[in-house]
Every structure is written in structure tokens, then in C-alpha cells.
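[INFO] parsing input record for Glycosyl transferase family 2
[DEBUG] input buffer:
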Amino acid sequence: MLIFNILFYLFIVVILIQIIYYGVFFVAFKKQNTLHKTSKKHPVSVIICAKNEAKNLKHFLPSILEQDYPNFEVVLINDCSSDKTLKVMESFKELHNNIKIVNVKSIEAFWGNKKYALTLGIKASTHNHLLFTDADCKPVSKHWISEMSSHFSDKKSIVIGYSPYKKEKKSFLNKLIRFETLLTATQYVSYAKMGSPYMAVGRNLAYTKDTFFEARGFMDHMNIKSGDDDLFINQIADASNTIICINQNSFTESIPKKNFKDWILQKRRHISTAKHYKSKHKLLLATFYASQILFYVLAILLISTLTYWKIVLILIALRYIVLFTSFIVTSKKLKENDLIPYLPLLELFLITSQFSIFMKNISSKPNHWK
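[DEBUG] output buffer:
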């Protein structure tokens, strides 16, 4: 039938798109940074915005304060917490003279807006070089500040890092969360290395205060509750001012969600910002995601109807060879090798979950960051 012939040729196009994308990822991760790290130790302000994070601050803040770096301050932002977050901050400040606390009061116009709290913290910071992470994050080494800040230069004012989630044994959700994080990082690292940075994660991100104020801070998207990291980077980052730092000592590790409901709520906030990206980035991301969905739909349809089934099987095998080759390289760089055996299953579950989240966001949208 003509319709199945059309679907077969569409399947070939989808395979080609997938191979191109995964080929780009492979090349990007094989490509070495040409920029040499500087030995200059810039004074750094580490900025942590916390809302009801008393427990996490007690556990993770010591790993920030124990960093092996000569000159840094820690700016702790209490964003209208209702727990003992402020008291925990004050208890640490009594022991460390490089801590500065910014206590944000509730203002109706900016209720639930992390960008407002971050802006106050940035204004209060002492140094021009800013390094951001979250209250539930832990640097994997004492050289986190050193590694991230060493990538600043006269030309590079934005440093995009990587922040994996902590590994948990015998948890499929943990593997799914980590795979989604790996895939997202594979994309934004690859695009940045190819000269088109489009996002970053606030768990591990650095830029200068000058860059922040030259861009008018978050003013262009202050009305959007999420996106203090990805929307800001999408707005200001380009090939000339941005560099990637994925040295293992530069990673920050975060605590993953414990159940599907909390993870889906988190991803709903993240996905809701994508529609505000630049048009070229929306097109690239939409094309990749659509090709993933069409691959599974068309593969099942063509095989079930025995339409050129031998050729279809060869194309499927080719696609998975390229997929595995690409992810073996990226997972090795980002220390997520244990996910490789589960790759096809994790990919299918992630695509299904993302489609469900996308449909849910059409009918209702998350309103604040916590």
C-alpha cells in the first residue's frame, strides 16, 4: 500500500535525523577544549538560594566551606523559608567569617519567584566572579571552585558545569532521573561546544556579575517563575563568551527525587520554560524529540505490517549502534557508565514520561519554584 511506502521513507528520514544528532553528540564529546585553564585565582562568590532547606544546609554546606581555594565567600539567600533555614545559616556564619546572609522577605509582586531572591543575593555579593549551586548539592571534590573558576578568562565570562544526581542501588526511578540528566547534559554540552549554548543547570553554573548586569539580570523573563538558569543562559550565552567545564573535579552531586510524583512536578517546571527559548533552539530540540517518538511509532508499525521488515531491522540496528557508541563516550566523560546496559528501556520510559508531562503542562502550569 502507498501509505506504508510513505511511512517507510519517513522512517528512513527519522533514522538519518537520529544518526546526525547522535553523531554530533559523539563529535562534541570527543572534541577537546582549546582554551587553556588559567592559573589565576579569581576571588569568587558562591551563591546558594535556599527555601526550606534547613536539613540540606546542615548536611551539604560544610562541603562548600571546606573547598581548597584561597579567596571565596559564600552568599546564603534565605528565600522566605518557613522552617529553620535562617537559623542554620546564622549558626554557620558564627563559625565562618566568609559567609554572608541575605534574608529575603515575602513581597506579593515576587512571591515564589527565585529570580528575585537570586538578584538580591547577586547584588549583595562582594566579588565579580559568581559560582552558583543549590542547597541540596555537594561538590564531589575540594577543587570544585578552583576547576570552575579556572575557566574564566578575558573572553569567557560564563562557565557551564555538570551536576549529576547521586546514584542509588536497586532503583529504576534513580536510573531514569540520572539518564534524563545525562541526555540533557549531552545536548547542552554538545551545543555549547558547537558554538550554540542554549541552557545550563543552576546546580553548577558560573558567570560574572558584570555579565549579569549588562543583561539587565532576569528582567527579560522575571514574570516566568522558573528559568533562572536555562532562560538566562539562553538569553545571553554565545560562542564567544561561554565555555564548558566537565572535569570530574568540577561536578556537584545532587539528591534525586524519591518518587515519580515529585520528579514529574520538578520536570514540569523545567519543561515549561523550553517554549521561551530562542526559535533555533526550540526547533533543534523539537526535531530531536519528535524523531525519538517517530522512531518507536514507525518501527513498531512497519515491523507489525511486515513492510520492508528486513531493511527496517537493519535501520533499527544501525540506529542503536550509533546510539550506544555516542552514549558510551558521553557516559564515560560524565561518569554514568552503569546506565549503558539499560539504555533502550530508559530511553523509552523517558520519552513516554516527557510526552505525558508535555500534555499535562498544556492544561495547567506550575506557578513557583517551591
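[INFO] The longest helix spans residues 2-30.
[INFO] shutting down worker
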